[in-house]
């Protein structure tokens, strides 16, 4: 009888425990997420304040030749004032901030010089091509021999520990699939144009020197981040893709998206796979010093779960909303400038997607030091709406002029700033031109010394000489103007030399 009673009690206890587990929200964490996201936020703010203070101090002293180069942007001020930056390229890897600040890229590895813009066989990439570079196993710092337009045949699948460094040349990546960062870590993508990306797949694509596999159809994202970590995207210009410009899903974390220029797109940025994917609760993303520009509609970003820090960005256009979310993400908006559209029904910065107010009232959406222009307004909630939180914050409001200053070079250096007459400032020794590039800038790639061409990990080759020239600039302006009038661009066959002059 005692045994029977004991068994009944055990069964009841087990039943209660299982019922509790079934109804509880699991507290899942990712192995590489930061245990204290607020500390990362405070460190970002400290870095910004330190750079602004240094710039102000040197300007007042007027004794340092670098004072005119400093902008107060801690990423750019970390490397751009170095007149010998071309021989210290890997210093860039020490300049990241936010959740992706540990992204090493190809730091410590050899330089790989891309000499061939072709992408004829994704299953067997030609040495000297970008595809051949990004699939290698070892850390590589990838640079380009000249200005280049790369039309991808299928998605470009990266291996870990790679840096794409487009400084000193003008590189456009377009075509099918575009960039895929799947199950990888430590990738830096810097100073390249990514646009007109279309779905592709159902093809064999190589992802490492020893493995080529069948890939299903891709979405047509500019950059797709899938179960990846320690990713830094900086000074890129993205537009006109079929799906998102940047999507990060399936438990990706440790990501910084900075100094980039987004334009001409509907669903700009998605962070989180779906509302039910619990591992995305560990997603941590910093979005800093970006310019969200012309002809954008929504998702800057659209968040599911996770912790998203949106700091010192310039939002100059949206049609529906700027920042949206579902499934209780934490959104920390600090020191941004939000300029609302003329539509009186689209003034709100925020949108809780398909969620009743009774549910989202406890979500932690904060606004601190944000600048609201043309009737824009941010609806905070949770801790972000409380007086106690605001009083405890160490973030001081930034003047509108500082937003201009911090985002003045967003996008590819020297690239066009649509809707702006203000050119980017120059960098000592920084040549944004290079020889005129074209879709004919291709070859076998086998004859060039593209791999480890120098130099070990300390120095890089001299920058290419020459410039775009007035004719190229004029043609680029005409084509960009034409793009603004066309809802979508179809690039087929050899006719796709759209920005590959």
TrEMBL record:
Enzyme class: lyase
Signal peptide: 1-24
Keyword Calcium: yes
GO molecular function: metal ion binding; pectate lyase activity
Region Disordered, residue ranges: 415-443
InterPro entries named among the record's database cross-references: Pec_lyase, PEL
Domain of life per record: Eukaryota
Keywords: Calcium, Lyase, Metal-binding, Signal
The enzyme's E.C. designation: 4.2.2.2
Cofactor: Ca(2+)
Amino acid composition bias (Polar residues), ranges on this chain: 421-442
Domain annotation Pectate lyase: ranges: 147-344
Pfam families reported for this sequence: Pectate_lyase_4
Pathway named in the protein's UniProt entry: Glycan metabolism; pectin degradation; 2-dehydro-3-deoxy-D-gluconate from pectin: step 2/5
UniProt catalytic activity: Eliminative cleavage of (1->4)-alpha-D-galacturonan to give oligosaccharides with 4-deoxy-alpha-D-galact-4-enuronosyl groups at their non-reducing ends
Family: Belongs to the polysaccharide lyase 1 family.
Name the UniProt record assigns to this protein: pectate lyase
Species name: Carya illinoinensis (Pecan)
């Amino acid at each position: 009888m005692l045994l029977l009673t004991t068994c009944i009690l055990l069964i009841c206890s087990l039943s209660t425990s299982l019922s509790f587990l079934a109804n509880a929200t699991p507290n899942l964490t990712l192995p590489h997420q930061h245990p204290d996201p607020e500390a990362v936020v405070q460190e970002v703010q400290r870095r910004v304040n330190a750079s602004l203070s240094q710039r102000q101090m040197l300007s007042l002293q007027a004794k340092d030749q670098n004072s005119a180069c400093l902008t107060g942007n801690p990423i750019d001020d970390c490397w751009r004032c170095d007149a010998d930056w071309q021989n210290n390229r890997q210093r860039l890897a020490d300049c990241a901030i936010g959740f992706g600040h540990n992204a090493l890229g190809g730091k410590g590895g050899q330089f790989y010089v891309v000499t061939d813009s072709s992408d004829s066989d994704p299953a067997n990439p030609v040495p000297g091509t970008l595809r051949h570079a990004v699939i290698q196993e070892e850390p590589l710092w990838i640079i380009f021999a000249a200005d280049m337009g790369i039309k991808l045949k299928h998605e470009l699948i990266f291996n870990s520990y790679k840096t794409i460094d487009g400084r000193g040349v003008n590189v456009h990546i377009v075509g099918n699939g575009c960039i895929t960062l799947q199950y990888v870590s430590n990738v830096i993508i810097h100073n390249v144009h990514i646009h007109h990306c279309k779905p592709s797949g159902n093809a064999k694509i190589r992802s490492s020197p020893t493995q080529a596999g069948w890939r299903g159809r891709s979405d047509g994202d500019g950059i797709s981040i899938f179960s990846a970590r320690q990713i830094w995207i900086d000074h890129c210009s993205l537009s006109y893709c079929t799906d998102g410009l940047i999507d990060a899903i399936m438990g990706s974390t440790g990501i910084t998206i900075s100094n980039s220029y987004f334009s001409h797109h509907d669903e700009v940025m998605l962070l989180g796979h779906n509302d039910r994917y619990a591992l995305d609760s560990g997603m941590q993303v910093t979005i800093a010093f970006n310019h969200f520009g012309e002809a954008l509609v929504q998702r800057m970003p659209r968040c599911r779960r996770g912790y998203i820090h949106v700091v010192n960005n310039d939002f100059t256009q949206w049609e529906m909303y700027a920042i949206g979310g579902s499934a209780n993400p934490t959104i920390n908006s600090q020191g941004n400038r939000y300029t609302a559209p003329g539509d009186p029904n689209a003034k709100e910065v925020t949108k809780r997607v398909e969620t009743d107010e009774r549910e989202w009232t406890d979500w932690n959406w904060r606004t601190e030091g944000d600048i609201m222009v043309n009737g824009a307004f941010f609806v905070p909630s949770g801790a972000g709406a409380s007086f106690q939180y605001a009083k405890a914050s160490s973030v001081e409001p930034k003047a509108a002029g500082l937003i201009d200053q911090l985002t003045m070079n967003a996008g590819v250096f020297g690239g066009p700033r649509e809707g702006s007459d203000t050119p980017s400032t120059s960098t000592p020794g920084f040549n944004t031109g290079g020889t005129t590039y074209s879709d004919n800038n291709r070859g076998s790639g086998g004859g060039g010394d593209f791999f480890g061409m120098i130099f070990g990990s300390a120095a890089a080759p001299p920058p290419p000489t020459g410039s775009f020239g007035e004719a190229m600039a004029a043609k680029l302006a005409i084509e960009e103007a034409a793009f603004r009038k066309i809802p979508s661009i179809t690039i087929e066959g050899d006719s796709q030399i759209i920005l590959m002059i």
